[in-house]
Design a protein that fits this description.
Chains A, B, C, D: This is N-acetyl-gamma-glutamyl-phosphate reductase. Four copies of one chain form a homotetramer. By secondary structure, chain A is α/β, with parallel strands linked by helices. Chain A has two domains: about 120 residues, Rossmann fold (3-Layer(aba) Sandwich); about 160 residues, 2-Layer Sandwich (Dihydrodipicolinate Reductase, domain 2). In chain A, about 30% of the residues lie in helices and about 20% in strands. Chain A is built from eleven helices and 13 strands. The first copy, chain A, has a seven-stranded mixed β-sheet. A six-stranded parallel β-sheet of chain A has the order 2-1-3-4-6-5, sandwiched between helices. In chain A, strand 3, helix 3 and strand 4 form a beta-alpha-beta unit. At the A-D interface, strand 7, strand 8, strand 9, strand 10 and strand 13 of A face strand 7, strand 8, strand 9, strand 10 and strand 13 of D.
């Protein structure tokens, strides 16, 4: 049994952590913090969790990180806020899973340029993608949970990049549900504006671009360039990522699928689809990442992955990291199928 | 050719007025005002209208009502704002169609109680439901355009009420699209909150209740009571109204439909459905109101109407009123089918 | 540990049973049958469940009920099919939870009239609404799982009916998601037809009407009449039920809520909301039923409930019944919050 | 005034032709044919058009093409059916706009390979993209109306291809609404399956690929290769096309936008967006095609277009072609803004 706190628990990722952790047999929730909601029952905000005994009496607390002494802390805080909080926990040897972008970059200058703010200083951390960094995560004190788009894109491309058989340019065209924009209403997320609509955004300038690129580069023996374009679509949950790359030498679909099956052998949350195509319905509410690919003429490969942006793309992956760090079964609390239809 | 201005043109009803009026062969748009968007091209806000020659060069103006000398003015202003503007236009003999609730009530106390504000004072106006008040509208100087729910509900019940054959209690259960909540984002209209959801609201206290009731009372020889409950559903446009009433004496469906066909004979925008059931798809984007009914055991009647809340429920009906006042063909600019699928 | 089979497992309720039972610690799945899909892996149909170890290797079997010797059998078969299968299991002392309407009626004539088919013959069964019939269910051999609309409506009205303080006429206006129409595509469920639409249907003739009425009558000391009108709305899961009734004597909201809190004291899946209003988001994917009410002038009461039609409205309630029959903790496998956003 | 018939008028493109033509001041509708619906009023199928006087009394006729003597005939028939009908009309000098793929290919072998059927024989036709082939269309006897994806893709890429400044490989990632799949329900279009979902399909093998490629090749002085991947998204109308290409030499955004503005100067239905990004909301229900682009590092260009698949992508473009052929104002009956919100 471990004691776990959530800092910044009033948003979607905080709610999703609660949903998952309240069902986790080896977790006791310590604190869930909020600056504005001190004293408010958590189920008043996360109404879907009303009636769950484990959460009865749990209220948001406006408590500083100095006063938290849990075994694990999830920072579900925005970019820029995490880097004020994490160092305080870090020096007190609390194990941290940070859901923001603040500790995802080895190169702090890249972070500062793309996130357009000064960083408070690097800390020894590990990029929390279990399928690639499981061993480091196990020993990690600070895990930087990957971004939602990067999770779908890196898992989709890693095996092929590592194999070293594709050309330099990697085109990634992603489609995300609206929950990825967070819990705060905006013009874009106003129902009449995004319903029956598709909105491309930051088509050459999304800050998940450098995150994807630096991770893929680490796997590659040659130079690569990532070109990333996201689109907002009228669904609540899910990211569908379509990557377009070119093979340097001829390979057929079966050979490529074998590369994927080998790379992900034994992975509990990766499903390589032979006959079906990934779609959001298959992963909604679950921690799975579905992947397939097709080989076109001229060595073009279309790769497709689907994840739930709030689960494998955020809170679920965070719990998966916690399970690894705590040496639990990695699937604990996470091993359920998606909600379909 | 008449000259027309729109006061408060940056919202959904303003945009819809522009969409309709820019296609109206006898209308020239004078001003479209906005306090905040002075100088901004209207198509920068209403992007669906980009490229329409009639609107090229048209910008929002922050112009006081004193400086408007159009033949007709639409006030697409919120409740409380209209009553500051309308009197200024009224005394200068400009003909006004007010889309707010400010002039819908003969009894100013009812307004003040339900809208929770002081009124600046009654003006001689007419309730702008053409199917009932066409002659008064024709001569009207100030037309109070009906609310969206009242349009669907009054048109649905008027023939039966007038016939004097139903019991006192009238239960109205309405389902509205999200555009009815206006252009400003809120928690409720945040896509992840209303998508895949149905939200009942103000279930006993919606201020369209007294508007429906006072209109139906005028048609009735006996006392009636309106009980009205709205629900928000995840569609952008449309109101589906289901009314449940009881007959005082036995009548079959055909007799009742005959009452409706007689009452609405010659009406260009009312469609009494014999075989189909009204649904939003049939009226989306159009000025039509579809109506049908069924007779259950024990004299229960279920009545159903469908309108587009922004067209027949607001701007389209406003233009219909303008056509009547200007003695144009009532269908001018409005006589198109809905958008389906 | 009990062994459980599902007859007719290729539809939505079959998939939902699998989703729930595959996470149930005391259940081993024996057979899941399908006439057409013999030999096909279940996760080829229920793709959201791919990768779940407990379901690996599980294929649909075309196996007659005679060859099933599980401890419990769920019949997720259509009306008319169940009554061919259930007797075979019944006489072999297998405990049965039937999701069809075939065994919901004590009065076989009512069934035959509303379902328009001959019945193969009554069996000793119990109506599977745990909040009302828990003790009979515990001892039951055959449980007739309630319909989706009846679950939402009966739970919503039972306390008030039992209290004997409302008038005879009960108006129920329900809104259901499209998954209630089943897995087979039709014109109505074709996305362009129901998206952005609301479709009232069987507005005076839905066969859940007599099911609701006979159950409420059993709770009532006086005569009651149920008038039920359903609407199809563009969401996948969920039923929102709005009931309109009149009090015989004055009561305020707090008194009525107290009646509900007393009636449902200790119920693990009923949540009486004091401050919020039920909506689909609060129950999606969960076995909860949310309820609240408001008291209007003239003793009108608006009551609102929300359930997930595939969980509390079908498969979840089925598992709840199984838990009761097997004397497990009633919440086993079902005690998770909904998926929100 | 011209007399116009529609062959195969019961589907979505037939309905959309009716919606547009019933508002066209110079068109009289002659026949609208259907094999199965002989004698049925057209507004019984296209219910959104009920109450429009111009369509009163109009019924579907099961009439062979030999008996049609209109000035213009739209074939809204499926691939394979058109090529049985068109020759009959063609030899009788009726001017034809065919919405199927049957006459889009100069090279009949390409057609036969991608459509997997024998062709009845080439006819002198013109590819009906007015922005490129206006003069030939004017003189045309048979116009092959472009496919929905090709319309969005070719208009998006033509100026850049013609300029001869991009590399050979053209990656096109399209997102389409469900109405593109037609009026017949399928598993894929079943609401619970596509709602809250994104489904990539025919990711390397969609038959619009050769149509796009052969048209772009005609504009290019060098070899090009089109790689096309479509996705189905849960909206009813609209196609959002994202193209990813690379410049051969450095150009900035402004230079490229200038190329587009020059290429499309005077075009009534093309809107080159300087500040906004195309989205479905801007074009829904209208004949406009919105276009913009961004220039990324390394000469990558992201191009985005939005159309309504049933209007500019099918029936609207058909009417635009008819207007050109009949020497009407090209905008007649088509010059209205989209429906937003």
């Amino acid at each position: 049994m471990i004691r776990v706190s959530i800092i910044g628990g009033s948003g979607y990722t905080g709610g999703e952590l609660l949903r998952i952790l309240s069902n986790h047999p080896q977790v006791e929730i310590d604190y869930i913090t909020s600056r504005k909601l001190d004293g408010v029952p958590v189920t008043k905000v996360h109404k879907n969790l009303r009636g769950i005994e484990a959460l009865e009496g749990l209220t948001f607390k406006n408590i500083p990180p100095e006063d938290i002494d849990s075994d694990f802390v999830f920072c579900a805080t925005p970019h820029g806020v995490s880097m004020e909080i994490v160092p305080v926990l870090y020096e007190r040897d609390i194990r941290i899973i940070d859901l923001s972008g603040d500790y995802r970059f080895e190169d702090i200058e890249v972070y500062e340029r793309w996130y357009n703010r000064r960083h408070t200083g690097k800390l020894e951390g590990v990029y929390g993608l279990p399928e690639i960094y499981r061993e480091s995560i196990r020993r990690g004190k600070l895990v930087a949970n990957p971004g939602c788009f990067p999770t779908g894109a890196i898992l989709l491309l890693a095996p092929l990049i590592k194999e070293g058989i594709i050309e330099e340019r990697i085109l990634i065209d992603s489609k995300t549900g609206v929950s990825g924009a967070g819990i705060t209403p905006t013009d874009t997320t106003h129902f009449p504006n995004i319903n029956e609509n598709i909105i491309p955004y930051k088509v050459i300038s999304h800050r998940h671009t450098p995150e994807i690129e630096k991770e893929l580069k680490k796997l590659s023996t040659r130079d690569i360039k990532v070109f990333f374009t996201p689109h907002l679509v009228p669904v609540t949950r899910g990211i569908l990522t379509t990557a377009h790359v070119f093979l340097q030498e001829e390979r057929d679909r079966e050979e490529l699928l074998d590369i994927y099956r080998r790379f992900y052998r034994g992975e509990p949350f990766i499903r390589i689809l032979q006959e079906d195509i990934p779609s959001l319905s298959g992963v909604r509410g679950s921690n799975f990442c579905d992947i397939t690919l097709e080989v076109d003429r001229d060595g073009r490969v279309v790769l497709i992955s689907a994840i739930d942006n709030l689960v494998k793309g955020a809170s679920g992956q965070g719990v998966q990291n916690m399970n690894i760090m705590a040496r639990f079964d990695e699937r604990e609390g996470l091993y359920f199928g998606g909600l379909a239809p």
